[in-house]
Amino acid sequence: MSVHSEIKKVTTETLRKMKFDKEKITMLTAYDFTTAKMVDAGGIDAILIGDSAANVMAGFETTLPITLDQMIYHTQSVVRGTDRALVIADLPFGTYQSNPDIALESAVRMMKEGGAHAIKIEGGKGISKSIKKIINAGIPIMGHLGLTPQSIYQFGTYKVRAKEEAEAEKLISDAKLLEELGCFGVVLEKIPADLAKQVTESISIPTIGIGAGPHCDGQVLVYHDMVGMNKGFSPKFLRRYLDLYSEITGAVSQYVKDVKSADFPNQNESY
User: Fold this and answer.
1) In terms of Cα–Cα distance, which of 23, 16, 14 is closest to 183?
2) I need a labelling partner for 142 at 20 to 30 A (CA). Which of 45, 91, 109, 224 fits?
3) Which of 6, 113, 189, 201 is catalytic?
4) What is the DSSP secondary structure assignment for residue 262, as one 8-state letter?
5) For 3-240, CATH number?
6) Could you give the CA distance from residue 62 to residue 60 in angstroms, rounded to a whole number?
């Protein structure tokens, strides 16, 4: 058994040490108390309250509509259900890009009201002033490079990023900058595996991959995708560990049948 599974509370320092010890880091999303409890009990190292809540919890097409207040609500719920994992919350679109003062205000609210242990924000050089201001206030930041879903209308597609040399070089330089600015880790989303390997080897902070191959220091998936609650979303990088969509719809169908036929509740289920 890994020494880290004995740790009472995972911290940003734990993740750095795991990279140094070459132990892979595990991360999943969660957006509510019940899921957080299960994910934490399963031994996950870090829980991300992703702005993907906009998609999987609220049914939006992109991550853009979710607000800071809504992200704080999801974060509070997850924190209450977590004992061991490091809890990292996304700052949503529009809460940090325009102005370092607004960025700090958003981050402070996420830590104070949400109870997050750290925040995650998308981008590199373009938001370096905001990153610096937040870190100087003592708030830990995880970066996010590659496919950054908050910029989806700029990209116009969810395809793999940084296949061209210029974009790959910018990504490497952004990763080094994030380390320099004091970020404790960086998510690499949908980039070629070789590039992710190069980035992982060129910085001393942990890289967490999603669709970025096996060479990252850790991996993250959206919980709803991993347990098969989403039907019809099948990117190449996703491994489904359950087919909960079928299990749950099957259970609901059986419940409907039992109620309609007056089989439920039976005598044992009545007072």
Assistant:
1) 16
2) 224
3) 189
4) T
5) 3.20.20.60
6) 6
pTM (whole model) above 0.90: yes
pLDDT digits (tens, 9 = 90+) for 165-212: 999 999 999 999 999 999 999 999 999 999 999 999 999 999 999 999
Which sequence spans correspond to the domains of the chain? Answer: 3-240, 244-271
* Statement: residue 3 has pLDDT above 80: no
Alpha helices in 91-149 (DSSP H): 100-112, 128-136
Q: Report phi then psi at 220, rounded to 5.
A: -135, 140
Residue with the two structure tokens 């209450």: 80
Which residue has tokens 């734990």? Answer: 14
Sequence length of the chain is: 271
**Two structure tokens written together for 178:** 């994030």
pLDDT at residue 185, as a whole number: 98
- At 4 the pLDDT is 55
Contact call for residues 145 and 155 (beta carbons, < 8 A): no
Binding residues for 3-methyl-2-oxobutanoate: 51-52, 90, 120
Q: How far apart are CA 3 and CA 263, in angstroms?
A: 50
